[in-house]
Amino acid sequence: MASRLRPVLAPALRILPRTAAARVSSAAAISARRSLSLKSFFTSRKPATSDPFTSQFEPVLEQADLFHPLSKSPLAPVRAKADWIAAHGTCPVCKEQDSHSHSHSEISEAAETEKSKSKSKPPTYECPDCGYPTHCSEEHYKMDKEHHKHVCGTLREVNEDEHDLRSGRRMKEFEFPGAQHRDEAVNLSNWDTFLYTRGFLSMNSERSMRHVSHVLTYPLTIGSVLHQSSPYQLGKDLTVEGLKSLAALRHTLHPAMIPGITQSQDLRSTATHTVRIFCLGARAESHLPPHIYMQLAYLFPTTAFQIHFVGPDAIPPHTKSTESHQHVHYEQMTFVYDNSRYESYHAEAGPFNPYYDVFFLFSPGLAHPSTKDMWKPTIPLLLDTKCAIFGTGFDERDVMNDVAEIENAGYELDWLMKPRENVFRSLKHEINMTDVRQSAQCNWGIWGIRGRRYDVRPSDQ
Ligand SMILES: [Zn+2]
Ligand SMILES: [Zn+2]
Questions:
Q1: Comparison of pLDDT for 40 and 302, the residue scoring more
Q2: Alpha carbon of 89 to ligand 2 centroid (Å)
Q3: Which end of the chain is more exposed for a tag (fewer CB within 10 A), N or C?
Q4: What's the total number of domains in the chain?
Q5: What is the average per-residue pLDDT within 256-272?
Q6: What residues flank ion ligand 1 with Cβ within 5 A?
Q7: Does any domain span residue 459?
Q8: Region (Disordered) spans which residues (predicted)?
Q9: What residues have a C-beta under 5 A from ligand 2, the ion?
């Protein structure tokens, strides 16, 4: 894995979304705290011209007209992005020149960063091929073109995808299928087979795949780990302990079908078990509309779910309420949103049972300076439950930093799933707007752990 290490992501990708950034409308892109998450599209408080789920408006952009330099975009939120990059971004050539001029000086790293910021000119020159403001001037752009061409294609793709999402066209790919017939088998090998076997419509372009994978990555990351048709196999991805933990959960999730009862379409009335999924440090995953999570529920038609989103940024979608604890019921799912610290929530939510409870930490930043301390009291509590704990990261380095943090802490734990690429990662690249050379993918990688269990064995003597 190490050979594919991405460049270091600027801290912005980690820091930005920790507060309620996703609650603000996309017009607030000028704010320095803007979330990089696409979820801000879906939680806009503005009239829903930019909400692809409810868009009923005349298209403002044709499909042949999706490429625009950011500053010349017909869409205000995209123009705002150009302003934001000009205010907070970096010209890589200026940055390079600056670091050279300081390389022999004795000043501290922090002071150097401060100084280089003041010397660099803002990136206001837009690459004609991707439309992103990448450099301070055409001159610096031309000097750096060899480097830029490695990211230009991704930036172009993101540019067109963003215009497409806000184009006002009918987003047929977001018209998701309902419950599957009990005889139909879902294939979770990858996005393609999942979407095909579940009967998703209009998935005939990579762009549609990127849009849909970006909203479904949270429920499908959970579903693909837990399901008996999981793409993760013993020996390759799962350890023996991993298989044991998942076997316990699958015992609950896939009860034997009872003829005449479990074939009913009324899922809630036939749900015989409740599985609790705890998403800790929840941010974007809590802002998704409940119907998105139904795609998880449809994978387990006889199970009722409680999804607990816990953390200061766990907020139901489309709400004006500022209550710190809220419940939303949706078919066989109950969503709990709680802003308390996990330590206090843990005491209330217990006791925990490895057959019914599982934890997911989506891009937790266990090793990141701004979030590291927050997790320190939490991890031992989770390990103590002996329930399975899965985590994700937005790129390889992010995953490996979290993994190293866990290993170095000396916890008594077993690995359930070795860190690896997540089959159901978002296919959409998110650009780091403070340095557009860097991008990441939501839930790029995944790993799993559990507090160590000691089997009681009869003594030999
Ligand atoms: Zn420059
Ligand atoms: Zn370019």
A1: 302
A2: 15
A3: C
A4: 2
A5: 51
A6: 91, 93-94, 136, 140
A7: no
A8: 94-124
A9: 127, 129-130, 152
Is it the case that residue 205 has pLDDT exceeding 80? yes
Pair (77, 207) in one structural domain: no
Same domain, 446 and 297: yes
pLDDT at position 208 over 70: yes
Where in the sequence is the domain holding 357, given as residue range(s)? 174-451
Tally helices (H) and strands (E) across the chain. Answer: 17, 12
C-alpha dihedral (234, 240, 241, 246), degrees to nearest 10: 40
Ligand nearest to the backbone CA of 90: 1
Contact 86, 70 (CB under 8 A): no
R_g of the chain, CA atoms, integer Å: 23
Look at residue 45 and tell me whether its pLDDT is greater than 90.
no
- Is a pLDDT exceeding 50 seen at residue 20? no
Whether 347 and 382 share a structural domain: yes
In a domain, 237, yes or no: yes
State the DSSP H helix or E strand holding residue 146, giving kind and residue range, or none if neither.
helix 145-165
* CATH number of the domain encompassing residue 430: 3.40.50
CA of 127 to the centre of ligand 1 (A): 13
In tens, the pLDDT along 80-101 reads 999 999 999 989 999 888 877 6
Q: How many CB atoms lie within 10 A of CB 289?
A: 18
Distance, CA 434 to ligand 2 centroid (Å)? 16
pLDDT at residue 85, rounded to an integer: 95
Provide the whole-model pTM.
0.82
